[in-house]
Design goal:
- The structure is a single chain.
- By secondary structure, this protein is mainly alpha-helical.
- The protein has a domain of 142 residues: Heat Shock Protein 90, CATH 3.30.565.
- It is 72% helix and 6% strand.
- It has 28 helices and 7 strands.
- The strands form 2 sheets. The chain has a 5-stranded mixed sheet with strand order 2-4-5-7-6, with helices on one face. Strands 1-3 form a two-stranded antiparallel ribbon.
- β4 and β5 form a beta hairpin.
- α1 runs antiparallel to α13, α9 runs parallel beside α11 and α12 runs antiparallel to α13.
- The longest helix is centred in the middle third of the chain and has 45 residues.
- The radius of gyration is 33 Å and the shape is globular.
């Protein structure tokens, strides 16, 4: 993610310097045209100062523009000697300070602003004071050192304090937006979230529609929180606003395209990422911004590598290095604009480790830069360690993993810690340290859990901010926050699944090694006994880990059920409450499966008789009016894999729930039977029947669009089964499907 950090930093500061004007290029043309007409002196002074300010705040300003700005300022000062408006005198000083900065006369510019600050305080002119502090913040945009950014933060906060005592909403929005940018760069996302929301609020109050910068920043912050769908939504909205705007948005559009590309990388859609990275790169090429061309080219390479196309990556990057001279300076707190680590990743993907070694050595040299950004340094350590793992230099790999571990621990970067343990797992596996490798997997999972917990805490903190600043939308925000937590829980379940796959793969490797060793059993009897004992311990640990996984999944589902119960308390009507309760029962249906797997010893299948009985008991306790219905079950001794039990259980849940709710009227007692039998060879028949009132005359269940029927059809398709409904003396659901025999890996 360091490339995204670099590019964001570059463009943020370019835009901060280049879009500080109060008027757009189109408006500047109109003001210029107005100067050619006879107008009052006061209006002419206003126009002259506006044009001078517009010119000196351009991102790229020529000597001709500097001279024109100086002429505008001089004419305004001469006219004001006749009108004698103190307001114009102070405004002239603000523009003069900006002109000094554009000319490179930093000392004179700061001295002029200090004079304005003193005048503003003595006259209690908060608007002028805010402008002076804002202009002073622009003097700290030349580098990315932490202390420099803190200085700019200080002056922006002083500007906001002054502007908040006025009705200058545009200036407030602009200051909050840049302040949020800076806090995001120094990893204070909580402050950045609050500030960007304040910026959006003040943009609305000022009637400004061109708020693409703030919307894009909100997308970046959601990206940092791992909410990639919300990030993508905001970035696409920002791109739409910027594209339709008449403002100078070239660099911002470049940044937004880059952010969208990284979001698609996280969403596992590298082809779309490549499209947006390429659009951003085209802008940088047209702007002849070579450093940004290299940074964006590195992102394009990432997309190609994610598409498993290293040959395309190397051809593309070779073309870039031939067309564009590599930047000579090592800027942005260390690093060569991604050139070395991009080539290192490419040649490692190609398996050309001799060519990769040169770039690994360059990264080692760059890592010694005392001004290097610490997150960049962590990336370098991990790439260097990965190179040494691939080339079997295990001691060197361990050295750099140890350096990285100390660094990510000090930064409290859980994602960095997780990546470190992932590499440690690769190293220990390659070294034959299988016991340590399993420990690495567990620690990697713990780090990912910490990411989830940290994200959850940040989400809750952001929710508190929303409550304080947007009270009228409090209830909607609360429900959205809970939905985000549920989605995070689902992501955590995927992480646990991946850990399980990794453990099974590790056990397969060990089994192969043991098989080879069995051929030498007579010669190495003592060694064989030791290996068998190790295998036995690993199998026990695997069984424990699998049970723990099912236990944690069950607990996660219970948390989701609790959240649904909590949401039900805020339901506006009975329909909403019913929908939440139905969702709760679906979660409970799955939770029963993981509870049974947790309670079993070394089994990966579910005894359907026990499962159906547990479901019936649960539904009787939770469904209204279920106590007057007799439930009958007849289940053959069938054991199914979890991949079939989940959709089958959800079908039973939906069918029984619908029967209880709709089949029996006037509270008459009724009966529901559930049978699960072996039918023809390799197939199973599920029947759920009731003696209720059946379907209404003329009702075509095939065209029904109710959620329950649609879910039943969807889960039946997942089982590749044949589904039918028979309405005769009640309603019967019949489903036949093929029994899948899960493979046993041990």
């Amino acid at each position: 993610m360091i490339l995204r950090f670099y590019l964001t930093a570059i463009i943020v500061f370019l835009i901060s310097s280049g879009r500080a004007q109060d008027i757009t290029p189109k408006e500047a043309d109109s003001v210029q045209a107005e100067l050619n007409k006879p107008i009052k002196d006061k209006d002419r002074i206003t126009d002259l100062l506006q044009l001078a300010s517009f010119n000196v705040h351009l991102r790229r300003i020529s000597d001709t523009m500097l001279k024109a700005s100086n002429d505008y300022l001089h004419e305004a000062e001469q006219l004001n000697k006749k009108t004698r408006y103190p307001f114009f005198t102070e405004q002239s000083l603000i523009v003069q300070a900006a002109l000094y900065k554009a000319q490179g006369n930093i000392q004179a510019g700061k001295a002029t602003l200090e004079k304005v600050i003193t005048l503003s305080k003595s006259s209690n002119n908060q608007a002028l004071l805010g402008k002076a502090y804002y202009e002073m913040s622009l003097y700290y945009t030349s580098d990315f050192f932490h202390e420099t950014m803190l200085e700019r933060i200080k002056y922006l906060q002083l500007a906001i304090t002054a502007f908040e005592q006025t009705n200058h909403f545009f200036e407030l929005a602009r200051c909050y937006r840049f302040l949020a940018d800076l806090h995001q760069l120094v990893n204070d996302n909580r402050s950045a979230f609050a500030e960007v929301k304040s910026a959006l609020k003040y943009y609305d109050q000022a009637g400004i529609k061109d708020k693409q910068g703030a919307v894009s920043l909100l997308g970046r912050l959601y990206y940092e929180e791992g909410d990639y769908r919300q990030a993508l939504q905001n970035e696409l909205l920002a791109l739409k606003i910027a594209t339709n705007s008449s403002s100078d948005n070239v660099n911002l559009i470049c940044q937004i395209n880059n952010n969208i590309g990284y979001t698609y990388i996280k969403l596992k859609e590298p082809e779309k990422a490549l499209q947006f990275f390429s659009q951003a790169l085209d802008i940088a090429k047209q702007d002849k911004d070579t450093p940004t061309v290299y940074l964006l080219s590195a992102n394009v390479v990432d997309a190609y590598l994610a598409m498993n196309a290293p040959q395309k990556a190397v051809r593309f990057f070779h073309d870039i290095t031939r067309q564009y001279t590599q930047p000579a300076s090592m800027k942005y707190e260390g690093g060569d604009f991604g050139i070395s680590h991009t080539y290192l990743k490419i040649y490692m993907a190609l398996g050309e480790y001799d060519r990769a070694r040169f770039y690994c050595d360059r990264l080692i040299q760059q890592a010694s830069n005392p001004n290097i950004n610490l997150y960049t340094l962590s990336l370098y350590y991990q790439l260097i360690a990965n190179y040494y793992i691939k080339t079997a230099s295990y001691e060197k790999a361990q050295t750099y993993l140890k350096k990285d571990r100390d660094l990510v621990d000090s930064l409290k970067s859980f994602s960095g810690i997780a990546q470190n343990y992932k590499l440690q797992f690769s190293l220990d596996s390659a070294s034959g340290k299988y016991q340590e490798a399993i420990t690495d997997l567990i620690k990697q999972n713990d780090a990912k859990d910490s990411i989830f917990d940290a994200t959850k805490s940040k989400q809750i903190a952001n929710l508190e901010i929303e409550f304080e600043t947007e009270k009228k939308q409090n209830q909607i925000t609360l429900l959205n926050q809970k939905a985000m937590l549920e989605e995070s829980r689902a992501k955590q379940a995927n992480i646990i699944r991946n850990v399980t796959i990794g453990v099974i793969a590790l056990l397969l490797i060990i089994a192969i090694l043991l098989y080879r060793q069995s051929n030498l059993r007579k010669m190495y009897n003592i060694t064989a006994n030791q290996k068998n004992e190790l295998l036995e311990n690993l199998v026990k640990e695997k069984a424990w880990l699998v049970k723990e996984i099912h236990h944690r999944v069950k607990n996660n589902l219970q948390i989701v059920i609790s959240l649904l119960n909590a949401q039900a308390q805020y339901a506006d009507n009975s329909a909403s409450m019913d929908a939440l309760m139905e969702s709760r029962e679906r979660m409970h249906t799955i939770a029963i499966i993981h509870q049974m797997l947790y309670q079993q010893e070394e089994k990966t299948t579910i005894q359907m008789e026990d499962y159906v009985n547990n479901m019936i008991s649960s539904l009787q306790q939770s469904l209204t009016n279920a106590d007057r219905i007799y439930f009958y079950s007849d289940v053959d001794p069938i054991a199914l894999d979890i991949s079939q039990v989940v959709p089958l259980g959800l079908i039973i849940n939906e069918a029984v729930t619908n029967a209880v709710k709709y089949a029996f009227c006037d509270k008459h007692p009724g009966a529901i039977s559930i049978t699960l039998k072996y039918a023809e060879t390799g197939r199973i028949l599920l029947s759920i029947a009731d003696n209720g009132r059946g379907l209404p005359a003329g009702f075509d269940i095939g065209k029904s669009r109710t959620l329950g029927i649609q879910l039943i059809k969807m889960f039946a398709d997942q089982l590749e089964g044949q589904l039918s409904f028979i309405s005769q003396s009640g309603l019967e659901l019949r489903l036949t499907f093929r029994e899948d025999k899960p493979e046993n890996f041990l």
